[in-house]
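Checklist before submission:
- one chain only
- standard amino acids only
- sequence pasted in full

Submission:
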Amino acid sequence: MKHSPPASDAQYCEDTVRAQDSDRYLIAFFQQRRLRQASVALAAWNLELARARPRSGETAIGLMRLQWHREALQEIREGRARRHPVIGELAAAHAARLVDLDHLEGIVDARERDLDPAPAANLDDLEAYARATAGALNAALWQGTPAAAAAADAGTAFALIGLMRSEPINQAAGRPWAPKSLRGGLRPIVERAADLARVKAVPGHRGAVAPAILAAGYVERARAVGSDPQHPIMVSVDPGRMWRLAKARLLGRL
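Returned file contents:
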């Protein structure tokens, strides 16, 4: 009986992101060629971090899983990356000087908030979390460039609308994010995502705002159904994603 050879680290990350985070897979596709593989690696790593919180909600287990990631980043610094396909790709991105490990460690630290079952206290609290996680993730490839701030805003917009789209699932899992005291339901969060999604691209670094293009599309869909998280249009994948990104590229925004 023949056995298939193991997939390369890059192929593993690509297959995982394509199957489990198709939005970020498209975002990676619209990056400069030299950044695409690292963008996919970061998206795969984000999926790993998202799994740190166990279904049981046991804080100690979540902390141990996040510590595993801190130690993995330290080992990359020391030139002895552990045998894991996602960590291997992060090590390659670090070796190519595409990512800063201190920046990534800050994202791990921010993910500790996932272990707290309480919803965000207010909109500012929710945005701070979104900025420290998905905002920082999108900015990871743009540190030291004129696009770093735009990338952070774009990633934050993408995170805010994503949290609202997944709110029914989060509530069912006992992990709501929307502040209970927020008037207007989810609409203020959607509108804040809309504000951030208007971020302007920086010439020579246009790929940094790719998440904002998708976020703007999801905002349109949310507005069309009154920001009702239970509506199928609100929670479903935008069928026009590729068209939106291609149009932005054609118009010089991406």
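Reviewer check: DSSP finds 13 helices and no strands in the chain.
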